[in-house]
Amino acid sequence: MNGLVSGPMRIVSGIQPTGSLHLGNYLGAIRNWVRMQDEAGEGAECLFFLADLHAISLPHDPATLRSGTLELTAALVACGLDPARSILFNQAQVPQHAELQWLLSGTARMGWLNRMTQWKDKAGKNREGASVALFAYPVLQAADVLLYQATHVPVGEDQKQHLELARDIAQKFNNDFGTEDEPVFTLPEPIIPPAAARIMSLRDGSAKMSKSDPSDMSRINLTDDADAIMQKVRKAKSDAEPLPSEPAGLEGRAEARNLVTIYAALSGQPIEAVLAEHGGTGFGAFKPALGELLVAVLAPITQRFTGLLEDRDALDAVLAEGAARARAIAAPTLVSVYRALGMVRG
Ligand code: TYM
């Protein structure tokens, strides 16, 4: 804990509604969101949001964003997020996200943003042509969690650097404008799962599984049917060696490690146990076992997802209700931020 956290947990996290939910999102983040929702103690609050404001940092199609937002809402509920227990909303209905981003922009440093690996990766060589939003994105992400005085932020490994930046911004703002007794922001703690924090592409064990990979064969979508899942696993890149009986034997075998990691995460076993059972087996036998496990875990989610999508008005209502609750929680933070910055408000 960071010393500033007192009282009940406030769990906050987000996901971009671009592209479909994939196995990396599920094992790296969403499954943890559901666990934290289910296990959070008395007085804890969970806020999970669709980061639609973030989606404009790269070229996007408005109609796809609109339908993607509703589909992702259905997918999150299908995965086990319960709108009665968790506050589920999209950023665009809570204007305080954008408002706080501006107020934090005076504190965030250009040098900090320049170091963000996601900015470097996504802008590539064309920095001059990248949007201002792509560069400033991590400040919005900081606002997303600081707005709610988040104590815990469950994310996959790739978001760790953004969370560290959020802590740096909060710390500097507290130093510059808060008092020792009354810090303006809580420093959020990233919660990264020990296993499955980084699920890799099925086609390339050195690249993370991602919505933006042009090849659909690189990822398992949570909406894939059993045939698609079996086919993607069968075609997944692997190697000609049998599985080792101990984790050390996965050294230098990125694809093999990824498939074993997925198996372990889905079956709730440590990697050691999976290798103790399957060591000596070749991929010809291991892949069908992995495919069947995936189908068994994902089929009920897909079924619930399809049912939920039939009532789009109900999904809109979930987001509207969640946003109203989020706006109310966000309000006191903005009052203290404006006050701390010396701004006069009627
Ligand atoms: P996004 O939409 O790319 O991903 C959502 C969550 O899924 C995790 N994740 C993965 N975990 C393991 N293996 C993978 N291959 C993999 N791919 C994605 C991500 O780490 C993330 O937890 N910027 C964020 C969204 C965001 C956010 C926030 C998150 C906006 N504001 C505030 C936390 C707090 C993003 O683009 O995640």
List the defining traits of the structure above.
single chain, 346 residues, mainly alpha, Rossmann fold, Tyrosyl-Transfer RNA Synthetase, 2 domains, 3-stranded parallel sheet, two-stranded parallel ribbon, 12 helices, 5 strands, 7% strand, globular, disordered N terminus, binds tryptophanyl-5'AMP
State the secondary-structure class: mainly alpha
Shape: globular
Give Rg in angstroms. Answer: 21 Å
The CATH architecture of the largest domain can be named as 3-Layer(aba) Sandwich
N-end to C-end Cα span: 37 Å
Strand tally? 5
Structural overview:
The chain is mainly alpha-helical. It has two domains: 10-197 and 312-340, Rossmann fold (3-Layer(aba) Sandwich); 216-307, Tyrosyl-Transfer RNA Synthetase (Orthogonal Bundle), CATH 1.10.240.10. 52% of the residues lie in helices and 7% in strands. It is built from twelve helices and five strands. It has helices at 23-39, 62-79, 96-105, 110-114, 117-123, 132-146, 160-177, 226-235, 254-267, 271-278, 283-309, 312-341, and strands at residues 10-15, 45-50, 86-90, 152-154, 189-191. The strands form two sheets. A three-stranded parallel sheet has the order 1-2-3. The chain has a two-stranded parallel ribbon with strand order 4-5. The chain is globular. The protein starts with 9 loop residues before the first strand and ends in a 5-residue tail after the last helix. Residues 1-5 have low confidence and may be disordered. Tryptophanyl-5'AMP is lined by residues 13-16, 24-25, 28-29, 51, 54, 141, 144-145, 153, 155-156, 158-159, 197-199, 208-209.
